[in-house]
Amino acid sequence: MHRFLSISTKSNSLRIHHSSLSLYTHLSNPFNSANGSSYAHHHFYQNPTSQFGFHRFFSSGYSSLTRFYTKPTGFSSMKPPFRSFSSETDRESMEYDVLIVGAGPAGLSAAIRFKQLCRENNVDLSVCVVEKGPEVGAHILSGNVFEPRALDELLPHWKQEEAPISVPVSSDKFWYLTKDRAVSLPSPFHNRGNYVISLSQLVRWMGMKAEELGVEIYPGFSASEVLYNTNNKVIGIGTNDMGIAKDGSKKDTFQHGVELRGRLTLLAEGCRGSLSEKIIKNYKLRELRPAQHQTYALGIKEVWEIDESKHKPGVVLHTVGWPLDHKTYGGSFLYHMKDRQIAVGLVVALNYHNPFLNPYEEFQKLKHHPAIKPLLEGGTVLQYGARTLNEGGFQSIPYPVFPGGAIIGCSAGFLNVPKIKGTHTAMKSGMLAAEAAFGVFNKGLNMETYWDTLQNSWVWKELHKARNYRPAFEYGLVPGMAISALEHYILKGRSPFTLKHGKPDHEATEVARLHSPIQYPKPDGVFSFDVPTSLHRSNTNHEHDQPAHLCLRDPKIPELVNLPEYAGPESRYCPARVYEYVPDEKSRLKLQINAQNCLHCKACDIKDPKQNIEWTVPEGGGGPGYSVM
C-alpha cells in the first residue's frame, strides 16, 4: 500500500514527511517472507517506530483502506526486497527484480502485466513503482478521451471491476473557429467506442489493481539520479534527500534519500522525463534508431462544473483556428464528463515563432468565444492544470532499450497526434516492456525483445500510419489541413514518403524585433482568470525552504540574451508564473524564479531559446495535486 501514515493533517508537506518515515520504516523492517527471495542475503533490523502500529492508507478517491504496517492483506507471502547500506553515500538501499519510475498509465500497466505473468507462471518476482507525486494520480493531467484497447487486453473485466470509466462518447464534433464564428467540419477523430474520463482517477484505480497483485508503490519520492555499475549499466535510481534548506544546510527534518535498485529499470516518467532524457543522451538512443528530435506542445486545461441543463455527458468537441494565428499549430478541446463536469483546454505547439505569445492568455481568450462562453455561463471552475505532451510521433521515438532497462510510455513518445491520444499506446508499450522483462528472468532472453515486439505491435502500425500529420503543419494551418485530409481520407497512412519535423522547439523562437507585442485583455474573474487564481485551483504545493529545482546553467543568460533579444519569453510560456523579471535596487530587470509555483509541465525545459533552464525534481510529494483531471 502507499506509504503514508494515517495522521490527520491538511499540510501537504507534513504528509510527504510522514510518507518518508513510512518508507524508512519499511527499509528497517522488511516484510517477513515464507518463500524467501531470489537475492542471497537479507538484513533484518528492528525499528522502534514499527512497534507502535502506524497505519497507512491508499491515497485515492476509491478507497480509504487502513491497515497496520505489516504484510498486505490478501497475500499469503510477500518476498522482502534486499536491503543494504551504502557507506559511500550514507543511503539505505532496497533491491527489486523490476523497478519502475512513474505511476502513470505506462508504469502501472507494466507493473500489472509483469505480476500477471508471475502469477500465470507461478514465479515470485518483486516489482516496485516509485512516484514523485504525493499520491498516485496527483500529477496526471490529460484531455482525456480514452481508447480502451490496451485496457481491454490488460484487464479485460474492467467494467465489472468498477473502473472509473462510465461516460461513452455520444457525439464527436470538429469546428474551425474564427474570432466570432464556429464552422463545423467533418470530424476525423472516430471516437465511437471511446470514453470521456478523468485520467488521474483511472490511474488511482490502476494503482489499486497493481497492489492487489503485489506491486509495491511508493508515492512521494522523486527519482533524482540514475545509478550505474562499473560497466555503465543502469542498476536503479536514487531519490532526493529530504529536509535540505535553500542555503544547502540540513534542517531538523533531514533524511537521506534512498537507493532503489532493480535488476531491470523501466522509466515511465511521462513527457520529457528528466531521467529518461539523461538516458537518451548518455546512450545516444536517438542516434541508434535513428530518430529525429522530439517536438512538443503545451496543454492547458480547466475542469468546470456547469448547469445541468447544458450538460450532455459524452459530447466531444475539438477545434482549430482562433485564438491561435495560422502559423501556430494547436487547437482546443471540450469534453462533457460525468457529474455536470466538463474539461476545456487549449493545446499550443511549442515550436511557435512569436516570443510574445502567451499560451495561458490564449486559453483565457478561448473561453470568451461566442460558441463556448454560453456553455460556461453560471459554471464554476473546479481545477486547473498544465502539462507538455510529445508530438513528434513515429519519427521521434528513440531506440527504447538501454543497458539495464527500457523507456516506456510518453517518456519515449507514443502519442498519436491526429487522434490526440497517447494513453492507450503508452499502456501497451508498458505491457510489451513487462513481457520482455519477464522473458529476461524466466526465459533467458534480453530486453531487445521489447523493441522487436513494439515494432510488430498495433502501436507501431498506428503511429506509422499517423506519421505525416504533425509535420504537415510546419507549412501553416491551411496547408497542414489540406495534407492531413489527403493523408486521412485518400492515402490512409500509406504515403510513399515520411515528412520531417522542422527546427527543435527552442530554436523556432524568433527574436522579438521581428514581432509586435500582443496585448491580452484583462481577466474578468468569471470566464478568464489571473495566474494566481488558477494556480490555487491546481492545488500546487512545494516546500518553500528547499533548493530550487529549476536551475540556470548560466545565470547571466536571462539578462544578457533572453530579455534583450527575446523580450523575456520565459515570463510568458510558463503557465504558472514561475519566471518573472523584476527590477532590482538599481531598477535593472532581473529574472526571479518562483519555483514553488511550478506545475511540473516542463515547458521551460523545452522552450527556453538557449536551453539554459534545467528542470530537476523537487522534494518528493511537491507539485500539483490533481484529482479530477
TrEMBL record:
Pfam families named among the record's database cross-references: ETFQO_UQ-bd (PF21162), Fer4_ETF_QO (PF05187), NAD_binding_8 (PF13450)
Entry's EC annotation: 1.5.5.1
InterPro entries: ETF-QO, ETF-QO/FixC_UQ-bd, ETF-QO/FixX_C, FAD/NAD-bd_sf
Binding note for cofactor: Binds 1 [4Fe-4S] cluster.
Reactions accelerated catalytically: a ubiquinone + reduced [electron-transfer flavoprotein] = a ubiquinol + oxidized [electron-transfer flavoprotein] + H(+)
Residue ranges of domain ETF-QO/FixC ubiquinone-binding in the record: 296-389
Superkingdom field: Eukaryota
Gene Ontology terms: cellular component: mitochondrial inner membrane
Class in the EC hierarchy, top level: oxidoreductase
Gene Ontology molecular function: 4 iron, 4 sulfur cluster binding; electron-transferring-flavoprotein dehydrogenase activity; metal ion binding
Cofactors named for this entry: FAD; [4Fe-4S] cluster
Domain ETF-QO/FixX C-terminal: 525-627
Keywords for the protein's UniProt record, in alphabetical order: Electron transport, FAD, Flavoprotein, Iron, Iron-sulfur, Membrane, Metal-binding, Mitochondrion, Mitochondrion inner membrane, Oxidoreductase, Transit peptide, Transport, Ubiquinone
Compartment(s) of residence: Mitochondrion inner membrane
Its job: Accepts electrons from ETF and reduces ubiquinone.
Similarity section: Belongs to the ETF-QO/FixC family.
UniProt name for this protein: Electron transfer flavoprotein-ubiquinone oxidoreductase
Organism: Acer negundo
Lineage of origin: Eukaryota, Viridiplantae, Streptophyta, Embryophyta, Tracheophyta
